[in-house]
Amino acid sequence: MQKKIIFHIDVNSAFLSWEAVYRLRHLGAELDLREIPSAIGGDIEKRHGIILAKSIPAKKYQIKTGESVPEALKKCPHLYLTPPNYNLYERCSNAFLDILRRFTPDVEPFSIDEAYMDMTGTEKLWGPPKEAADLVRNTIREELGFTVNVGVSENKLLAKMASDFQKPDRTHTLFPSEIAEKMWPLPVTDLFFVGHATAIKLSAMGIRTIGGLAQTDPSFLKARMKKHGEIIWAFANGLDFSVVEAQPAPNKGYGNSTTIAFDVKDHKTAKLVLLALTETVAARLRQNHVKAEVISIGIKTSEFHHTSHQRILSSPTNITKEIHQTCCQLFDELWDGSPIRHLGVHTSRIVPETSPRQIRLFDETDYEKLEDMDRAVDRIRDRFGIDSVKRAVFQKSPIDHMSGGISREKRTVNYSQLDIR
């Protein structure tokens, strides 16, 4: 049986690298953001004020992804901050994936800046694994201007671990024969699937390295950590049987959420936010020709306390009005009056849109009419933009009529208002 060859490609400081290359190539900038302490940061006034990406020089000041902008500026007062531009990131990600698909059709995007490649059987085309990985890496740098790390192994787990070794712009191998030397000495927190809470539990057992975890009796781990203990023991020993999936699996759920720029303290405003979120969720359901049987909402208060509530519908739906009505009922049952910072709408138990509706004797709702109206609105928005049709309740509201996900202010940047050096 032919040995599997899997690559994991990881863009180095993706958002910041993409921003730097765009400025250098298209805006005439002379300063490379990758060479100074810099970061991509959210808008503090809109309560998205966190560090999304940082340069390698910024790491010297202990700047961390996910920390607040004020915290980062305390560590490095001269940190160069620039706002996010997700339209740019999506274009860069697509260009990055297009290059990978030149080498193999078996490419699985893992995130906007990561992907797996199944390179099994391509040696006669591209050479030995490390040589092929270097070719991929150099092609991306030369054509797109940013750098990547490539991890090479026999499975996805080890390839991902390898790509996290020394950065930037490197190729690393981590074959099973190299695990003891390259992976086992690493702290257990470096292992995929080991988060902060798991690391604390392992430390209490005296397990601080990946090697220590690998050499622990799996039955001991299972007794204390159940199934999770078995999984991380297998990972520590380099065991992973998942395959590279070029075609994504069907969604098991659709959802959207938003952090609101002000504390919401009344039902009317909260339900308007829920309507805006429902607009985007229901449109995605219809776009993918599916319906949902379970609707849930989530509330995060200004004190960061999170609660959620869900309901199973009598019939699956993708109708905006029907989903919103359910969300409002759930909200009335869940909310305790605390100021709201964040709201979310989620759907699950997804079924084909051809699934029949259970007719109720005294229900006079014309569901077919509502479905036709939603489809008409979808077609207009697809052709003329999402703002071409807007519900009247949003006309004088500060709430974006299609909220959630990546907010508009993060989708593009007015570079004329920035200091481009």
Kindly list the characteristics that best describe this protein.
alpha+beta; single chain; about 425 residues; four-stranded antiparallel beta sheet
- How far apart are the termini? 55 Å
- What's the shape? globular
Which parts are unreliable, with pLDDT below 50 for 5 consecutive residues or more? none
Structural class: alpha+beta
Strands side by side in the biggest sheet:
5-6-1-7-8
Radius of gyration: 24 Å
Helix content: 25-40%
Q: Could you tell me the mean pLDDT?
A: 92
Tell me what portion of residues adopts beta-strand conformation: 15-25%
**Biggest sheet overview:** 5 strands, mixed
Number of helices: 15
Q: N-to-C SSE series?
A: EHEEHHEHEEHHEHEHHHHEHEEHEHH
Task: Give me the count of strands.
Answer: 12
Quick structural overview:
The chain contains 15 helices and 12 strands. By secondary structure, it is of the alpha+beta class. Strands 5-6-1-7-8 form a 5-stranded mixed beta sheet. A 4-stranded antiparallel beta sheet has the order 9-12-10-11, with helices on one face.
Strand and helix layout:
Blueprint: E1 6-11, H1 14-26, E2 38-41, E3 51-54, H2 56-59, H3 69-75, E4 80-82, H4 86-103, E5 107-111, E6 114-118, H5 123-126, H6 129-144, E7 148-153, H7 156-163, E8 171-173, H8 179-183, H9 196-204, H10 210-214, H11 218-236, E9 253-264, H12 267-287, E10 290-301, E11 306-317, H13 320-334, E12 340-352, H14 367-384, H15 408-411
Parallel strand pairs: 2-4, 7-8
Antiparallel strand pairs: 1-6, 1-7, 2-3, 5-6, 9-12, 10-11, 10-12
Helix pairs in contact: 4-6, 12-13
